[in-house]
Amino acid sequence: MLQVYTGNGKGKTTAAIGLAIRALGAGMNIYIMQFMKSLAYSEQKILSNMAPHITLETTGKPFFIAEEGMLTKEQIRSIGNVVIFPKGRPPKEYVEEITAGFRQAATKILSGNYDLAILDELSVALFFGLIERKTVENFLDEVPQETEVVITGRNAPDWLVERADLVTDMREVKHYYANGVAARRGIED
Questions:
Q1: Cβ count within 10 A of residue 169
Q2: What is the pLDDT of residues 129-138, one digit of tens each?
Q3: Residue 42, pLDDT score
Q4: Of 79, 94, 120, 127, whose CB has the highest number of CB atoms within 10 Å?
Q5: Whole-model pTM?
Q6: How many CA atoms lie within 13 A of 144 on its CB side?
Q7: Residue 186: is its pLDDT beyond 80?
């Protein structure tokens, strides 16, 4: 099955990691590739210690990216390390890095050694044009039937939502970020 966790609400990665823990409890082997993330998140410490049953890899740079006009000046200041690029023209070196990371993930997943594969933030990479649709579609066509695939991230494209067997749209109803509460260790990072 193909599962997609998308939407503007909090909890997409958290839900995928919860599924990984459930699968681990059932004796499954899990592969996780986190796109657009470096090794800076709390969950990565524990997941890395669960080898060989969980393989965790990351690809991306330690900064936030956004297209011109997506963020206000205040948002840019509050985020800090942000790379802004013209719509449809993401930084070439970032595209190359994400594409190489995807190829690496695809090779491992297509090996048939994993029961569950989580491609965290892949929807965001697709949204920003960091990975081509055709590349992802070709991969999905080749995934072994017995491998469950989970793709997370905001702005899942319509074609991916249509193709998925399960889609969860996490809708933000209320978030303390609006009141100036920054990301909290162990909760958001």
A1: 13
A2: 999 999 999 9
A3: 59
A4: 120
A5: 0.88
A6: 14
A7: no
